[in-house]
Specification:
Elements (H helix, E strand, L loop, with lengths): L3 H16 L42 E4 L14 H13 L1 H21 L5 E3 L2 E9 L10 E17 L4 H67 L5 H15 L1 H19 L22 E4 L2 H7 L1 H22 L4 E12 L11 E10 L7 H68 L4 H35 L8 H5 L7
Parallel strand pairs: 1-5
Antiparallel strand pairs: 2-4, 3-4, 4-6, 6-7
Helix pairs in contact: 2-4, 3-4, 4-5, 4-6, 4-8, 4-10, 8-9, 9-10
Amino acid sequence: MRFQGLVFASAITLVSAALTSCMVGPDWHPPRTPPTTRYTEEPQPRHTVNIPKSATAGKAQHFIAGRDITGDWWQVFHSQPINNLIETGIANSPNLVAAKATLIQAQENLNAQIGTLFPQVTLPVSAERQRFNAASFGQSQMGSSIFNLYNVAVNVSYTLDVFGALRRQVEAARAQVDYEQYELAAAYLTLTSNIVTSSIAVASARAQIDATQDIIKSLRRQLNIMRRQLKLGGVSGNDVLTQASQVAATEAQLPILEQQLSVARHSLAMLVGSLPADFVLPDIRLEQLHLPGTIPISLPSRLVRQRPDVQAAEALMDQANANVGVATANLFPQITLSGAFGYQALQPHNLFHSATEIWSGTGSLLQPIFMGGQLVAKRRAAIAAYQAAYAQYQQTVLQAFQNVADTLRALQHDAHTFRAETENEYASHKSLKIDEELYKLGGVNYTTLLIAEKQYQQAVIARVQAQATRYSDTAALFQALGGGWWNAGNRIRSIKPVLA
């Protein structure tokens, strides 16, 4: 009899192996990749147009289909300040720390859920002192007695996962881990992309401020000349006032541009985990950025595996599918086996003797009969949740392909726009210089000169904005394609939550 209890407890695992060979509910199958070979309605051109009059913004960009994206794609801009900002952001971003901590939480919840698949073994040890009255058994003449009772036992309990409810719960927990992994990747991609685009916004604002200040200096020189001409009777007072108004109107653009610079600066401070008051803005200049001449374009069949938002949506589908299995399994019987083996004695030194052995074995089956429709309704709800997750996945895929198509077309249009703005700036500058000389000689009136000045101002600012847009949309394309996060494992693994 000494080992009968242990034999019973050990048999639980053997019995369960024969009874847990099936799982009800749908098995998970990843959705199919969209059957398309291109992103846009027309075949994507292999390169953008050439910009012959620009050296700083690069020339044509060539698209290389099927090439993988590196984990540090931002280095294509050849900007050390941007590289440093990204390294600082990865090290200090609270969003990344929160995403990593949430992933760890999901992993530990999965470990806990896996533990339910195994027998639960406990070792209760107790010592009890009682006063016993025999009158409770109808033996009042025996009086009462006081004694101690010592107990040591091993309890084993195991729920046979006959219909797979526990294993489906493990599937759901594992899908949650996958979801949090992709959420971490999405946070990483969003952070790095936002640092790049905010840096470009800083460079754009600075370039526009510099251009506006140069224009103001030119307008002021012209105003001083006109004031001297007024004294000599060469121009009218109205012309001088008009020029002064033009200077003031141009100066009024500076606070707007400086506000844009401040907003971009504060955004960068937040992204790298710094307070705006403590953040030292690096010297990022538009003319120092390199526009990549070659850009890798992932195949459409690879996009859904590269975009972390698509993969996260797929993980939610997987989880919803597992929950349907859980709800289905709950409609069937639940079988639980339990056993105990131990010793019980009045004196501690009498424990672990054959005379003090105690053991028990129990098997139970619980079959739902009438639950007021709860279980069936929960299964229908689980199916509806899966359908919603599938629809959300489809929407996310559509959004992903739209993002890539938009940015591919944007780069084409940006190149055309930048070429036009560059040529416009070049032509308007030459026209202004000619009109200035003619005005000095009396060949044109002041209205003609004023129009030329305004056109040149607008052309300079438009060229700077078009140049910055090329950089921003290039970064947006890398983000739309997934940003190569799958090649940035060391950077992502280096993110570690810390206790406050």
